[in-house]
Amino acid sequence: MLDANKKDYKNMIKILIISLALLFFSIFIFGVILVYFFQVINVPIIIAGTLASQLSILFYGLILLGNKLSINKVINEDHSFDTLWMGIKITIIVLLVNWITGFIFTHDGNIPDSTQQVLNNKSFLLTFLFPVIMAPICEEFTFRAGLKRALMDRGGFNGLMYVILSSVIFGLLHWQPASSTALAHVTLTTLMGVIYSITYLKTKSIYVSIVSHMLYNGIVVTLASFIQ
Predict the structure, then answer these.
(1) Which of 25, 103, 163, 201 has the smallest number of Cβ neighbours within 10 A?
(2) Is 196 in contact with 148 (CB distance < 8 Å)?
């Protein structure tokens, strides 16, 4: 029994290390290559960077899922009207968490730096398509479905460890060192990750968190555009 447990822990550590190594490769190597490619074909740098980051995240998710069967299984998960309704209800919870986080970390009513950067770019791609449509699809597919496949199905991690690890990774990847609201943003995205990871485990449908993520980002961008 002891040897079996040691073997399980070794496999868990191995899968975690591999997952983090693949994350580094996807974001910092594949992503940089994509940025260079987009610049070669004269895509504006701000669009190139945003597009490359989302595509590299999606690439990471595809690697984590590993094969066509696993990818198709995620794509074919429940996407009925009940899924849409559940996504709306989860969005209310996320908005409440956003309000609490904002109350704790900021008291001046300013728009978070990350949102302000989106609004400063007068581009449909940057103010709507990327943050409201593309980012939720890529991020939920990867950090919810992909990491569940890697950590739980392959690594043997329990649900609690999956929720913690996937949420922390999701949160830290939103860190912006030069931002005055960096800590608040990382805290918020980590808590969002917790909510969406638990939701994914409970509903077994990636579409619930995708719908909620889209609605949340859309509401934040829309409200911020009126405030500024």
Answers:
(1) 103
(2) no
pLDDT digits (tens, 9 = 90+) for 114-144: 555 555 666 666 678 888 999 999 999 999 9
Q: Do residues 175 and 186 lie in contact, with contact meaning Cβ atoms separated by under 8 Å?
A: yes
Helix (H, G, I), strand (E, B) or coil at 196: helix
Q: How many Cα atoms sit within 13 Å of 147 on the Cβ side?
A: 31
Q: How far apart are CA 228 and CA 213, in angstroms?
A: 22
CA 79 vs. chain centroid, Å, equals 19
pLDDT tens, position by position, 13-67: 999 999 999 999 999 999 999 999 999 999 888 888 889 999 999 999 999 999 9
Length in residues, the chain? 228
Residue with tokens 């701000």: 46
Q: What is the average pLDDT across 157-176?
A: 94
CB 188 within 8 A of CB 94: no
The per-residue DSSP string of 165-208 comes to HHHHHHHHTT--TT-TTHHHHHHHHHHHHHHHHHHHHHH--HHH
Rg (C-alpha) for the chain, rounded Å, is 18
Sequence-ordered list of residues with C-beta below 8 angstroms from that of 81, at least 6 positions apart, any chain: none
Tokens of residue 48, six digits: 């190139």
- Answering whether pTM is above 0.85, one says yes
Q: What is the pLDDT of residues 182-215, one digit of tens each?
A: 888 899 999 999 999 999 999 999 999 999 999 9
